[in-house]
Amino acid sequence: MRKKIIAANWKMNMTVAETVSYLESFRVHVEPVNGVEIVIAPPFTAIAKLSELLGGSQKIRLGAQNMYFEKNGAFTGEVSASMLRELFVKYVILGHSERRQIFGETDALVNKKVVTALASGLRPILCVGETLEERDAGREKEVLETQLRGSLAGVTAAQMNDVVVAYEPVWAIGTGRNATPEQAQDAHKHVREVLAELTDAGTAAKVRIQYGGSVKPANAASLLGQPDIDGALVGGASLEALGFSEIVKAAVA
Ligand code: PGA
Fold it and tell me: Which of the residues 148, 233, 236, 241 has an alpha carbon 20 to 30 A from that of 170?
């Protein structure tokens, strides 16, 4: 049984003060919820405060939205895996489509980050997904395969246990247009098949695959009810504590 994992990707939103009041209310809403892993990935500036407030909580895990693969040195503007580990960050989102599209990240760069994260004891949430143009051209499966092979090069079957894959069709991110549960299930099944080729069927069966792209309280249950959808990576709808808690609850319903 794969334990569902619901992650908040706050992107470039939320000050430290907003983080404090969000957590206060979110904790109350998810207090009765069990059997689902919750991750919050705030901007770097709020990680230290959130870490302090969570105090090693088993229920709500800390995530980061990015990191660099070098250990330290002259890399202005970047943050290393050990800096995140020092703050008890457990998950790191890597290869998000905004990183790929706005900041020019390639599969080769994402791969270096994935390998470094795993070697440093961080669990990558590896994002993959096709653009609208690629889907319209019927190329979505090929795109997913290329991204997975490129980003996971050199990752062993044992390490795959610590990897979460997020399928995020680019056309569904922040657009209000989510993939239908059937479209998402079809893509997730394909992702799992590629993972089985990269490792083995037993390993692939254990990897959690999140769906991301306009997940909201109203559509969460139908997406999370699909056999290969093991969680959600939530952007816009995670910025509001009550709404995000409803998505978390949909994972255990
Ligand atoms: P969205 O973003 O939920 O706002 O569509 C999802 C994501 O980019 O991870």
Answer: 241
